[in-house]
Amino acid sequence: MFAPCPAPFNLAAHALAHAADLGEKPALQIVGAAMESYSYARLEAAMRGCGTWLLAQGLAPGDLVLLRLGNTAAFPIAFLGAIAVGLVPVPTSAALTVPEISAMAAALSPGLILADDGVPLPDHPAPVLPAAAILAAEALPPCAYVMQDPDQLAYVVFTSGTSGRPLPVAHAHRALWARRMMHQGWEGLRREDRLLHDGAFNWTYTLGTGLLDPWVMGATALIPAAGTQAADLPALLLTHRATIFAAAPGVYRQMLKTALPALPDLRHGLSAGEALSPVIAAAWRKAAGTDVHQALGMSECSTFISGSPDRP
């Protein structure tokens, strides 16, 4: 049995609760052609500086902040920085077109938009601020965490739209507390792990399994840089000594088109996003020597059934 979420609670504070103890241990490393690395201490400083900066833009608790950010450090810093001070981030895919993101913005009416260069922006009157300003906020004094009712709205994500148009889904602060059940019930996650997740940050699979869960456990999140191809991933797994690999089944299928190197640090793989073919699972086991543990879930409620190292 799992204890209920404590109250008051803040998702961002819980995500980086180990920062003071872990200090210079790597929390986030974006690996590949572009390299970025943040220790636990630096990530918390950057996130809380961002919270201070966001409040200085005149936003009020509960205001929505639309994220038009790719797989760079600015994304998690802005996401957690907003939540830390009671704002509500809305991650969106950087691949959306102007009409697509305009429809989403119209449905939510955000108070601010944070954007990477070159990412399509909505036709919306909210001010737009660049990702560079998010990173520069690391030098600002740290914000105070706004501790709230665990049921208070923390962030909004959009469904993929596979059954129609994408719909916004509200997640409370307690959503991160509830994910503790997945650490052993699916991921087999340990503090010493280095988990490499291949996916866009706005995807709930990447956001939860690739970033938030490792940080709650005090592990290291490894994320491939933008532009990384499936063929590049085996070398990244080897070079960066990944102990867990997470991806959609299609990524495993692409990786298996060429011979895999020996991956002595890899303990197992994780799969979600669509059903994992038993053929792919068996081929991976033969090629990599590890199991792949599957979970099924959706944007509305995250994972609802899974296998794990303890219960294959």
3D structure, described in words:
The chain is of the alpha/beta class and 312 residues long. It is built from 12 helices and 14 strands. It has helices at 11-15, 19-22, 40-55, 74-84, 98-108, 131-136, 174-178, 180-187, 204-217, 233-239, 249-255, 278-288, and strands at 26-31, 36-39, 64-68, 88-91, 112-115, 128-130, 153-158, 168-172, 194-197, 220-224, 244-247, 268-271, 292-298, 302-306. An 8-stranded mixed β-sheet has the order 2-1-10-9-11-12-13-14, sandwiched between helices. A 4-stranded parallel β-sheet has the order 4-3-5-6. A two-stranded antiparallel ribbon has the order 7-8. β13 (292-298) and β14 form a beta hairpin. α3 (40-55) crosses α4 (74-84). The radius of gyration is 19 Å and the shape is globular. 47% of the residues are buried. The model has no long low-confidence stretch (mean pLDDT 96).
Q: Pairing-aware structural class of the strands and helices? A: alpha/beta
| Main beta sheet strand tally, sense and closure | 8 strands, mixed
Helical fraction: 25-40%
Report the total helices: 12
Which labels suit this protein?
alpha/beta, 8-stranded mixed beta sheet, 4-stranded parallel beta sheet, 12 helices, globular
Q: Can you describe this structure in just a few lines?
A:
It is built from 12 helices and 14 strands. The chain has 312 residues and is an alpha/beta fold.
Describe the protein's topology.
Elements: H1 11-15, H2 19-22, E1 26-31, E2 36-39, H3 40-55, E3 64-68, H4 74-84, E4 88-91, H5 98-108, E5 112-115, E6 128-130, H6 131-136, E7 153-158, E8 168-172, H7 174-178, H8 180-187, E9 194-197, H9 204-217, E10 220-224, H10 233-239, E11 244-247, H11 249-255, E12 268-271, H12 278-288, E13 292-298, E14 302-306
Parallel strand pairs: 1-10, 3-4, 3-5, 5-6, 9-10, 9-11, 11-12, 12-13
Antiparallel strand pairs: 1-2, 7-8, 13-14
